Amino acid sequence: MKAIIKKSRPKVLAANLSGQKLSALQNTSQKFSADVITVEDQQIAISAALGETSAECSDKGKYADSNAEFLLFAGFDRAALNKFLDELNKVRANVDLKAMYTPNNRNWSVAHLIDELEKEHKQMTGGDVNG
Predict the structure, then answer these.
(1) Does 3 fall in a domain?
(2) Fewer Cβ atoms within 10 Å of its own Cβ: the N or the C terminal residue of the chain?
(3) Residue 111 and residue 70: Cα distance in Å, rounded?
(4) CA 70 to CA 55: how far, in whole Å?
(5) Would the pLDDT of 57 be above 90?
């Protein structure tokens, strides 16, 4: 008997999205059979926010919460991610701060990852992020 490994659905973790962008994200996610998880507590570990563990994050309270719009993608391959982002752009729901879920950021707080992305965005573009 062969074991069947059930592949989990892709997930999108979102912070600080509202109105049209949140609606567009939810509609696009349905097309890709992905789950949207909105996060209110930015001090939670990313892995916990995605429902994978209840472990404490490695940096809770070290980074301030942000108002910047943010998306984190888990379980997407490169092709699916590119198509997903193209769909968001078509409906004018672009979000500047985006990341992939990795072994390196899984125990970071959401606030930590947003902080790192804000620094990177500012350095790359010389400007502030949307939000």
Answers:
(1) no
(2) N
(3) 10
(4) 22
(5) no
The tens digit of pLDDT for each residue in 7-39 reads 689 999 999 998 999 999 999 999 999 999 999
33: which 2 tokens?
Answer: 């059979």
Residue range(s) defining the domain that contains residue 113? 11-125
- Cα 25 to Cα 28: distance, rounded to the nearest angstrom: 5
Is 99 a member of any domain?
A: yes
Q: Is residue 5 part of a domain?
A: no
Q: Is the residue at 39 inside a domain?
A: yes
What is the full DSSP assignment across 13-76? EEES--HHHHHHHHHHHHHTT-EEEE-S-TTSBHHHHTTS--PPPTTTTSS----S-EEEEES-
Where is 110: in which H helix or E strand? helix 110-125
How far lies 43's CA from each of 1, 61, 63, in Å?
Answer: 44, 6, 8
> In this structure, what token pair is assigned to residue 95?
């979000």
